[in-house]
Amino acid sequence: MSLANAHQTLDSSRHEILSNWVESEPLGLILNTLGIEKTQYQTQVAEPVFDYLSEMLLTQTKKPDCPAMRKLVETFLDSDMHAEDVFLNCTTLKNIIIHTLYSQHVVHKEVQTVATIMDQNLYEMIKLYSHQKMLQDKRFHFHAKLIEEHLALSKTDPEGIITYVTDAYCDLSGYRPDELIGKTHAILRHEEMTDAFFAQMWQQLNEAHQWEGIIKNRTKYGGEFIAKTEILPYYDEDGALIEFIAIRHDITDQMLSHKDPLTSLDNRRFLKDKLHRILQENPDTALIMIDIDHFKDLNDTYGHLFGDEVLKALAHLLRQVTHHEDMCVRWGGEEFMIVLPQRSLPQAARIAETIRTRTAELCLDKNGKEIEVHCSLGVTAYQQQEQIDALIERVDNNLYQAKNKGRNCVVAF
Q1: How many CB atoms lie within 10 A of CB 151?
Q2: Per-residue three-class SS string for 145-190
Q3: How far apart are CA 215 and CA 150, in angstroms?
Q4: Where residue 143 falls among pLDDT bands split at 50, 70, 90?
Q5: 167 and 144 in contact (C-beta within 8 Å)?
Q6: Residue 305 DSSP one-character state
Q7: Residue 209 gets which letter from DSSP?
Q8: What pLDDT digit, counting tens, does each position of 98-132 carry?
Q9: Which residues contact 136 (CB under 8 A, 6 or more apart)?
């Protein structure tokens, strides 16, 4: 049966039909949800769909895969509509077309044929939508499952109160969700993480709207885990902060392989691996080498366990007086090294003097007796283009001179 009259009527009423469809309530709800302008939708979606339907009525053939109809399906998928809502919206278009044909006095039989053809094509479109929606839901649930089980993620409100944690984060920390939600991340704070570290983190978050770094944490049962962490703030359309999302990658094994097991400082091998890059990126870098005075006598007199306590106390002190970008290393035995990027020789000498005086204030207890601890320190600064071995030899020589001068002093040049 020829549908020439129907096609001609639709072609002459094209603008009116499209306007009525775009202004219809079902489609209006979708566009409001997606934040799409009606003129944009009409140009990019409605007009190609109408042209496809018009051609289909003229030729009475259906294209096996119509880009216009797929675009319509994608738009509906973006709005997360139920298939019933999609059917309602498509039926709205069909009803507008049928009403237009009747109002232009197209014969009933021809209108009924148009209605049948449209029903068949809209049915195919709904079937396509349902299939795509099912695949989308499956992908969503699959990705959600992956995130829940494998991504150590947490969310907090703008005040830092935890509102959501994944199973992977709970496995990492040892806490249950109900033990974390409603708390702050301070519940996992490791004693080595200083106030200055977190102050700098918050400053960067406020300025750059993101932060990346390495955080050491305490588990529920007293263990520790080290996480490479990325924190992102999320804002609403008015620029108001909604929440923070933190994503962690567990690097505990990787980091601990570079750690001295007694002091938890970086070990000598790790420093040698990193020092070349540090000096390339920060030509103004200073070094401090530290040796605990008469450490063998302390071990012989008070025992090796006491000697271990001395080493751990000094390591804790070094972390307190340095910044998180500095590198504190157990160089070997009772010797320590500090790498200070972006510090001059005078600045490093002042830090060394602080370490010397505060070491003398440690006064560790042994069976009710306070034992004084002292250290000697050598300080130097990197010179452009010099070999790393020459730099380390110079700071070692300065330490040797400090010991020769009577110990408990700083030599810097």
Answers
A1: 14
A2: HHHHHHCEEEEECCCCCEEEECHHHHHHHCCCHHHHCCCCHHHHEC
A3: 19
A4: low
A5: no
A6: H
A7: S
A8: 888 889 988 888 888 888 877 777 767 667 767 77
A9: 77
Helix (H) or strand (E) segment spanning residue 88: helix 83-103
pTM, to two decimals: 0.49
Tell me the C-alpha to C-alpha distance, in Å, between residue 326 and each of 98, 114, 285.
76, 77, 10
- Residue 123 has a CB neighbour count (10 Å cut-off) of 12
Own/partner long-range contacts of 121-127 (Cβ < 8 Å, ≥24 apart):
121/53, 121/56, 121/62, 121/69, 122/87, 122/90, 122/91, 122/94, 124/62, 125/69, 125/72, 125/73, 125/90, 126/83, 126/86, 126/87, 126/90
User: Position 379: which residue type?
Assistant: V
3-state DSSP helix/strand/coil % of the chain, to nearest 5? 55, 20, 25
229 Cβ contact list (under 8 Å, min separation 6): 211, 212, 213, 214, 215, 246, 247, 248, 249
For residue 64, pLDDT over 60 is answered with no
Cite the beta strand spans of 26-107 per DSSP E. Answer: none
- Give residue for tokens 């738009």: 75
Query: Which three-class secondary structure state does DSSP give residue 212?
Result: strand
Residue of 356, 372, 374, 344 lying closest to 411 (CA atoms)? 356
Calculate mean pLDDT across residues 323-332. 91
Can you tell me the distance from the alpha carbon of 9 to that of 13, in angstroms, rounded to the nearest whole number?
Answer: 6
The CA-to-CA distance between both ends of the chain, in Å, stands at: 101
Q: Which pLDDT tens digit goes with each residue over 263-317?
A: 989 998 888 878 988 998 899 999 999 999 999 999 899 999 999 999 999 999 9
Residue 273 identity (one-letter amino acid): D
- Structure tokens belonging to residue 257: 């392989």
Residue with tokens 């809209």: 122
Whether residue 16 contacts residue 93, with contact meaning beta carbons closer than 8 Å, is answered with no
Q: CA 279 to CA 387: how far, in whole Å? A: 10
Under 8 Å between Cβ of 57 and 9: no
Residues 349 and 381: their CA atoms lie apart, in Å, by: 10
Alpha-carbon 157 to chain mean position: 16
Q: What Å distances lie between residue 68 and 10, 43, 51, 52, 73, CA to CA? A: 18, 11, 9, 7, 9
